[in-house]
User: Fold these one by one.
Assistant:
Number 1:
Amino acid sequence: MAAAQAVEEMRSRVVLGEFGVRNVHTTDFPGNYSGYDDAWDQERFEKNFRVDVVHMDENSLEFDMVGIDAAIANAFRRILLAEVPTMAVEKVLVYNNTSIVQDEILAHRLGLIPILADPRLFEYRNQGDEEGTEIDTLQFRLQVRCTRNPHAAKDSSDPNELYMNHKVYTRHMTWIPLGNQADLFPEGTIRPVHDDILIAQLRPGQEIDLLMHCVKGIGKDHAKFSPVATASYRLLPDITLLEPVEGEAAEELSRCFSPGVIEVQEVQGKKVARVANPRLDTFSREIFRNEKLKKAVRLARVRDHYI
Amino acid sequence: MMEEDQELERKISGLKTSMAEGERKTALEMVQPAGTDRYCVKFVLHKEDHILGNSLRYMIKKNPEVEFCGYTTTHPSGNKINLRIQTRGALPAVKPFQRVLNELMNVCQHVLDKFEASIKNYKNQKASRNEPTF
């Protein structure tokens, strides 16, 4: 019984010991364990696999994938970061830049601005094609001139009052449709995602006048094309109490973990610790600094449950 | 060997362009180390990295006929991987490779289906609770 349990643990849990992590690698390949059929079976995979979306809003998505292996989960993560295409500013034609920001710095900043455009509707630009056609390029114009505000108070020192147009935001970028893009994309659908990103600051007499070409690219080429700010995963924590923990020790135990993980209940007049929600734990391993309690707990992660 | 190689290459590039987005011309070479037969083969995949390498390695190892499978990147800034497969002698080494490419596509398709269903489910749940969806 104990041996079977140990094998099961080795197959399904990554164990965090005091000084190291055990069972890190996937070992459930055919031939490694007698009595287990580990050959790839699409049906068994489909039966065990599920996806649960935990939280989704405009800027972030959290979901659980259960029943998949690290190799494939990591492949998805890497693909999200590096190989999902987006549109971003690639070429900047500067007509006039008398601001204090150098041309190349300005061009670099413009490249990093996220553009709201569905890359599936565009093609990659052919190599060697300098001009760009309507099927692979988006054009934006940025033209801002800073002037002194004639109605400002005499002794004011607030730049917002003294100058007009002294901050260049992404909302100053205007989209210039090429070819038939005006028919395909209604007014206002092609724009920078956020219109309050500060691009540069100006003072009276300075002007920025430039034309930007956006192309489709992938994150592998340049990080500006990466569609995500970041994509990461973690394994579901699995905390088991190897022996019952009562009384004052129970309170201590609950303090060693993130709030909400360990719950202390009153059972027959004694305080007993119970694992309530291991998912919330961030595994600071505070428990190992406590001499008495570190033997009472086994910290592990479920090998095929990705959050 | 040459015919198999070409046929395999056609199949691979066919699978690749349907799997990847955009145009990435993938080249695939098959190298037979000297002194071995067709049960031990090394594939050189151009323009690939750990994304495909690790997933293929995992899927190939799940095949009980495969005795050994491993992959390396030749250089961290380089753009190709070496994938070596050795079978127990019942199948030529290209067979698990072909099978795994199809299996991986099935896996990804299934994940995509489940994911889209889950997103739709979540949006419906939010709508039924009258929270704003986007």
Note: Residues 70-82 of chain A form the longest helix (13 residues).
Number 2:
Amino acid sequence: MEYLIGIQMKHDYDKMFKLSEKILLLCVGEAGDTVQFAEYIQKNVQLYKMRNGYELSPAAAANFTRKNLADYLRSRTPYHVNLLLAGYDEADGPGLYYMDYLSALAKAPFAAHGYGAFLTLSILDRYYRPDLTREEAVDLLKKCLEELNKRFILNLPSFTVRLIDKDGIHDMEKLPIGPK
Amino acid sequence: MALQDVCGLHNPPLFPQWTAPLSRSFMPEDSTHLSGGGIHGEAFSTRLPGRGGLSPLEFYMPIAEYLTESPINFGQTSLSSALTKLLEIDHLYPSLPSISLPPPTPCPISPSVPLPFTLSHGTTTLGFAFQGGVIAAADTRSSCSGLVACPASPKVLPIHSHLVGTTSGTSADCALWKRILSRELRLYQLRHRRRLSTGGAAKLLSHMLHPFKGTELCVAATLCGWDGDEEKHDVASTPQHANAPTNQMTAIIYVCSDGLRLQGELFSVGSGSPYAYSILDSSVYWGMSVQEATAVAREAVYRATYRDAYSGNNVDLYHVTAKGWRRRERENLKEEYYREKERERKRRVIAY
């Protein structure tokens, strides 16, 4: 959802950028910075693949992103973006990297940005286990969204959900909030 | 250049040579003059033999006694005195190209005066797609902190034959960037022998505006266009499903100087946009006819001008199809207002 002075301009705005077959970059923050920075990272990751013949691993991509964010941080044009980088590595398995606009980087089992984070992190703390099945994970996500629906002041009509596993990125059904 | 003169450099060269080194005669370079300060900086400090001490910058320097006048007269007076001095220069140096200044307009905003309140983007513009193409509509009021600077300014500007852009924000910035975009699209068309798509045009505009992020530049445009070849069948003649925009070549993209770029089916921009949104959200559907769409767009702008102080005067409406854009005649909404009042009065008479 893109808001402009309190009006929703678009209800189906996709904030995820596909960096490679198994890496997604979720980018939120200031209006133009998000797209500019995310597309820059996206094209650079693809360029790496073209030049070297193989794709960057999620850890490498995350560190590359962090380095760029840090370089711009003390320039005249810092990017005010908060990022989540999610990917599947052949050797290391799935990985989630949390990055904020001050270019802090942390590998985390679960993460959230924005005001929604205040509401959802404790649910994730309570119910997350490293050995969740796919159905349990989707249920956990639904629990988070129910809480947002109940307590969050902004109306968030729909969420895009994607799953990354050894076979790549899979679009899952959009999760709506609200009475069915 | 202006700074050097203010700082007291002696006898700067006459202004035609601002844009070129002294060795060259005056040729308006299209791109080099934009970066004037850099390599040509040295040229400006040399003295020209035989020229009078008249600096063109004196035209724009305020004369002390007028500083106490109200801001509305301030700009007018200095520009008209500049006009007479310019004519004198033309007489003395006939080889110079003559410059025609626009008629002096009141300009109450000067950078040294703090703004009394934040200026809203005083406008209502909208664009939406339907089975018959794209409708782009806007009001025509240009406001300047509480004053209607121009009641008849065009806010929907055609960029090329199949693309129009609605503008919101600073009028000057919008007009300039629209022209720059038209130029770049035309160059693309000449080089690649095809028109750039609306998405491409939006991306180009967004990337051109990005370096100015954080400055006072303010442009919020909705590009409404038709992509694809004209040889394709006219979509309006074939029956479409109620919600089948996928075959359509229409594109509506909102581009903002913040860097935001959104593609969608319906957008409204400006201070009057909430009022317009309320009308459009309930009345716009894919299968509407051209007359219906025109009526809805016109109604939306009318309602917005009714409630929003910064929107008003006339409504411009453009309709873009596979054959290009067509412009509806500018309509004065004052008539509509009085017609509605008349209807209300009649209704009340009948009721009692």
Note: The mean pLDDT of chain A is 89.
Number 3:
Amino acid sequence: MDTDLNSQDRKDLDKFIKFFALKTVQVIVQARLGEKICTRSSSSPTGSDWFNLAIKDIPEVTHEAKKALAGQLPAVGRSMCVEISLKTSEGDSMELEIWCLEMNEKCDKEIKVSYTVYNRLSLLLKSLLAITRVTPAYRLSRKQCHEYVILYRIYFGEVQLSGLGEGFQTVRVGTVGTPLGTITLSCAYRINLAFMSTRTSGEDNAAAYPSVEDSQEVCTTSFSTSPPSQLSSSRLSYQPAALGVGSADLGYPVVFAGGLNAAHPHQLMVPGKEGGVPPVPNQPAHGTQADHDRMVTCTPLDGSHYSAVTPSSSEETETVSNSSEGKSGSPHDLLETIFVRKVGAFVNKPINQVTMASLDIPFAMFAPKNIALEDNDPMVNAPDSPDIESPLQGSLHSEGSSGSSSANVHDDFVMVDFKPAFSKDDIIPMDLGTFYREFQNPPQLSSLSIDIGAQSMAEDLDSLPEKLAVHEKNVKEFDAFVETLQ
Amino acid sequence: MNCRSEVLEVSVEGRQIEEAVLAVLHTILLHRSTGKFHYKKEGTYSIGTVGTQDIDCDFIDFTYVRVTSEELDRALRKAVGEFKDALRSSGSEGLGQISLEFYQKKSRWPFSDECIPWEVWTLKVNVVSLANEQERQICREKVGEKLCEKIINVVEVMNRHEYLPKMPTQSEVDNVFETGLRDVQPYLYKISYQITDSLGSSVTTTMRRLIKDTLAL
């Protein structure tokens, strides 16, 4: 109860604070729409521009702000907060900023309401316009697209900063003293943009982001700041663009380097519409497995099995691999390349190809969708091949036996049907088809056969101590060489 | 009254000079501009509306807000352009400073009006030269972050609510505000700059010394 303030001033002050709160929300939300804002100056006063600033009123935002305020005004212990959060297309969300309009008890009784307070509130709004472009969430919001959207939520009451993660930073926009208290406008923003998807990780991530129930609660009261054209696309299920890039994207939006300092928040960009995909870090095996399950449905393979594959064989598969994303030795690459080797060129399987091609994923040809068909085709699977779990071993065995059984295999084919392109049967005795069939299954390279491989492994291990001794002797030379490189 | 002085410093690459300086100056002028005054009878006045627009920088990862006024933008760009040319011509790496001074005019008839500054913002610009594209990319981001800090500094000073000239009567308005623009009304301001040559001494002081020495003979 303030007896020094006359009723007109009190009414004016309440009105100023109310409209200031509404304009504050408009400025913040419009700054996170992802578009550049431009309003015109007008030399003649229109009478409807509060604080002499041209700030448009988005009706939906005003409606939500009024709903949150519910006829009250920011007062001591009752702050108006605008929460800005990010939500990925997979449903993961993260709070980015909390903007707080607070009132404290420090009163300035001398100040003139209709003049000084009004002008200072106008100045504070200009500061807010400047500061909203300066926090990290601004650049994120400018790049929002179908992969993530920026949402806002308005609430009234106590400020909740726990969702911002550890080490969040605060920037004060400004303060205005009034006879009823001092209005303070500030922003607390997250710097640690690390959070993991619920799909791939377990309980250690519970602290990093709100539980599923919480985020759902946020979502129901949240409103996207995306322009309508982007809104609809953001609700579609994620469409992988290409095999290599797509799987990188699937992993990336939810994996950020944790604990980065405020100096580089901008670098933690989700791959958006601008800029390329940042370099993909080495994905953990289970992460890649999850990606793989999404991209290509097939019998799940135990990633750990491939760690037993000998180094030489994994190198070979990498060179044959079609996806050159540098994920060497990952189960995904290995699986893909196995099928490259199995499905040879010129294999006459039109039906299979048609069904594969109709799928909307690249390299669908090599997807093991119709394993039954491939299993029945002796051109692909030599007889007696073991089951899929160790396809590398299987192919080794089949290569080994192909020399002796090749005649039998080939006799199952009717030559007339097999007509490779550009070949003529009658002119040249050795035509393309015959040539191809003869040399289709060449004997396996001796260095790749497991027996010999095992032997050489043993020899390698034995020679290791000698090699180490030699290297130790030459340590100085190596060091000098390294120096020249730096 | 004492003139308030604020100094900011940035290190930029040559092609970033203009955008960095414009970003800071426009942010200051955003806070130091009002709508056009329309005086009515009995000494009251109404104020026009100030529009704002976002400007993306081309050579810096940064966006700033400026007042929507082509005339004001043109005036600033002209001054900043001259500063940039002077800075670039002083060598590939250089140091210069550009000052934005807000002043009031005091008429001392029959003498000329006296200009009394009440706030001076000085932006020291250090020009660096970079070797390759990778360094330039890092510079884009780093300068963007630095400018964010500068904007926060500017806003912090603005919200201290320290001395501002009193709102003038109609006859005095030209002593406080720049009334020549069509759509907005900033406080009276002037922009000046100084280039420091590689020897560390400013060009103006060198010239002054030369003239003094000549006159002393």
Note: The first helix of chain A runs from residue 7 to 31.
Number 4:
Amino acid sequence: MAECGANGGGSSGDSLDKSITLPPDEIFRNLENAKRFAIDIGGSLTKLAYYSTVQHKVAKVRSFDHSGKDAEQDHEPPYEISVQEEITARLHFIKFENTYIEACLDFIKDHLVNTETKVIPATGGGAYKFKDLIEEKLQLKVDKEDVMTCLIKGCNFVLKNIPHEAFVYQKDTEPEFRFQTNHANIFPYLLVNVGSGVSIVKVETEDRFEWIGGSSIGGGTFWGLGALLTKTKKFDELLHLASKGQHANVDMLVQDIYGGAHQTLGLSGNLIASSFGKSATADKEFSKEDMAKSLLHMISNDIGQLACLYAKLHRLDRVYFGGFFIRGHPVTMHTITYSINFFSKGEVQALFLRHEGYLGAIGAFLKGAEHDNPNQYSWGENYAGSSGLMSASPELCPTQRARSGTFDLLEMDRLERPLVNLPLLLDPSSYVPDTVDLTDDALARKYWLTCFEEALDGVVKRAVASQPESADAAERARKFRQKYWSKLQTLRHQPFAYGTLTVRSLLDTREHCLNEFSFPDPYSKVKQKENGIALKCFQCVVQALDALGWEERQLALAKGLLAGNVFDWGAKAVSDVLESDPQFGFEEAKKKLQERPWLVDSYSKWLQRLKGPPHKCALIFADNSGIDLILGVFPFVRELLLRGTEVILACNSGPALNDVTYSESLIVAERIAAMDPIVHSALQEERLLLVQTGSSSPCLDLSRLDKGLAVLVRERGADLVVIEGMGRAVHTNYDAALRCESLKLAVLKNAWLAERLGGPLFSVIFKYEVPAE
Amino acid sequence: MGTGRFGAPMERHGRTAATSAPSAGEPELGGAEEGRRREPLRRRASSASAPPVGASAEGARRDRPGSYSGPASVSRQRVENLRKKRPLFPWFGLDIGGTLVKLVYFEPKDITAEEEEEEVESLKSIRKYLTSNVAYGSTGIRDVHLELKDLTLCGRKGNLHFIRFPTHDMPAFIQMGRDKNFSSLHTVFCATGGGAYKFEQDFLTIGDLQLCKLDELDCLIKGILYIDSVGFNGRSQCYYFENPADSEKCQKLPFELKNPYPLLLVNIGSGVSILAVYSKDNYKRVTGTSLGGGTFFGLCCLLTGCTTFEEALEMASRGDSTKVDKLVRDIYGGDYERFGLPGWAVASSFGNMMSKEKREAVSKEDLARATLITITNNIGSIARMCALNENINQVVFVGNFLRINTIAMRLLAYALDYWSKGQLKALFSEHEGYFGAVGALLELLKIP
């Protein structure tokens, strides 16, 4: 059955300090703008959800209103930047012990400004119990929602919107958590909710699900029977006892029945023949630990067996486990996983969810917000505002655990546009954007965490410098530093806290933290200046290229793309040079490049291809602003256009480091068009199209791209994808398989990474791939 | 021979708890290798054990006291031929489970005067001892009500006796075999169950008895099919319950297993084995669960301090499990219509015991009842899922967990019918836990 559970008996926290241990305004954030609430009250934990809006500062770029080309002056920047306020939607979820419920409701009441909200959808076994309290405190009418419907709605939501939501758990392996890549189609699946009892639900579509079975032997049996057997009252303490026990003292094993013969028979003597089979005696005392362990195995095995039987009957292989029995407890995740592996002979995988505890609250919220149709949007987990998965140490004593979990937060940002798969992915279900899994690769993890730590002061400096007119920039930058630093420390100890740890997630977390403290675009002025310098060189570079013979020109264009890519403030090696020597030029960058043959060099194959018929349409993911985009990418685009290939140029929707944003790219293209008739006509005739990626990351996830981009790619029949830069072509997508030709280009501006790939700093990756027929 | 002599060494405070012990089995964490599953166990067990009885006797080392004693090679040949068809008395079948040893003994009633005269003393004394007593020591019991009369086996007429004693008294049994000089009668003893392996060495070194180890599932199937075919002294072996949920109207009715296949066989011993039987020789072990009779009795001992299976059942019969379990109606106030769950269904076994007040308010009888209901419902649920997966609609429940356990049988009957919407039928068999031992006896007699 659904989560109900503790009516008093084991509600933890009675020995804990009843006051809120964190400053409430850091927990209930953005409460003043909160519009809609939902609440899920379980046996011991309350989960509150609310929708709010966040006001951000964003850097907007705008072209100067020139009446004509001649108005341009040499000293003038190419466009103007203004900082504006933007309002975005965010979902807040807070999880806390039921003990705090009254204090929390009081706090919310005091800070609630919005009066439109009249009703609060509530779910969970405790919703009834606390109904009057909520109605009295918040002056909102409690609307009870069906527990299972909420759970399923919540489950669908996290599976669709949070990358790396689901994971398999493998005790004693490194890493313990193995996150799953999101499938485009999450249905059908089986949800096994282990609350006080067990409910097994088959979910077929967004709105269609069916209770196909259940069992009365669940978390309540472990808790209730465990309390009777061991006189231990609390669920967490029972689990702790179980983690220390030896079940073979209580259970009758196969070897107890067969003697030593099981070995010669090839039997596993350790199989349990009869749970509690040895306790059928009055002469013996059994330890609490042993009995708790035996009980844990008995219940986990039983749940696993039934889950497998139902999965088999309904031919499903994706089984998600949830409920308070599972909820992040390594002990039960382990026993359930073991049981599933045993009974399904490896055919079914036990999957767990990072935000399992929030499903009910999310579902109740969605139910209450149905007329806004929140499912039409894509959402993203905000790493800055979310607590991440709790420590998984089974040895952690229960009181500690309860304390550390006093308040747990999840924040999700509503993305302005829906995100979808790139239609050109060879196999969306097996696509993994990231090249290196840092949860798996301890050496790489150590390097990158240190790298990000060392780069932090530089980022802080740049953030402060980007807002010279702001009085509190230094203070905000200090807070940013503190936040990101603590995230890095969390990730050192719990690399699995936010899903698979990757260079991408480290970069994204930094961007989220910068945004959190109103540094929306620390590089806006640097980008503006570089774009200005590069635009001035554009014609000169193009003329030089045009003077070359065809074959020479192709190599020069390729080198140009790569040389441009050396200009990257995000890479420490380059930012050092750029800081000390602003005159560092395009030509010098070319000299820095490795001589051919490059580290990865399929240029000859590419040249061969260019001798053939033109591509129909190229999709290019641009990287940096300035020289990279203007002197590297645009001449290459121009050549493609001349060949008769249409070009879709995709740039980030929001800022990240010095990466060019979509709005910057529009201005740059306009300026180039003014100088170059080829680009001009291509823009006019829509043979050159500028689109946004939907992302604000220095990396690239081809499974979460702006829907408009995907539509265009389909319409135009793109048959070439060019991915440029270390973040997009090496940290991510290096191994991505596409259904069409692709070019992955990067200069390795990180000595460690270059060495890992077997080359020196500034090694070149020129990877041209043609899909197998 | 008196009871004391058989029983003396067995005088212990044991209990005649549940059940035979099939290789039920659930995984143990960490240790067990995944590759080793129970399916291979069955095959290995049958191939590793079971040397043909006749073959091993071919090299008979001892002079066998029996019907013939002629030294001539011709008469020897005749002895061998006859012997191959029909082994010498006594005829036993043994099933050594995790908790109980089940022994079947065929008592020939057609002994001729000549035979009687030639019958060796030890053989006679065994027969008299077993058939003239109903209890052996403090723990050995003959289930007189199960005795099958006037059975013809291998051309001999006689009665089949059913005896059980706790597995922990096995050493005493072997010692008795030694004292009675069993080895002078037989070199081979047909035995099944895990204990056939566990005690093999003891039989050999202490009792000078060689065990013929037989696969327990083969024996189980053989035993069931045979017993069903001979009936129960003119009555039907198989039965079912009509109106199982209604104490007034509930009726135990005979069931004729005309078309036994396919059949789901659920053997509830200390643990539970579930087999799908498609024909006499074609069956597979589908799964098993470690939540069986041993779990019921073990938990009852811990929760109530009871000491015998009978006591546990007696307590359960007086208890109220709804005080212990959390029902659907306790959570939803009635039926949970969204999912079609009736209010009386158990939502969480022992779920009320999460609350301190409710823990203090329950009696031992309530706890015993809840334990029984929990284990029984779970077995019913797993059996039902297996039946669905295997597409079988008749389910026969056997094993000593069901001995004098009408509550469990009626609950299984009701649960199967209710949750399958009448598609599945729960069947039971009078000789509950003795089929393995019968199968071992049939192996001895080489009855196919």
Note: Chain A has a mean pLDDT of 87.
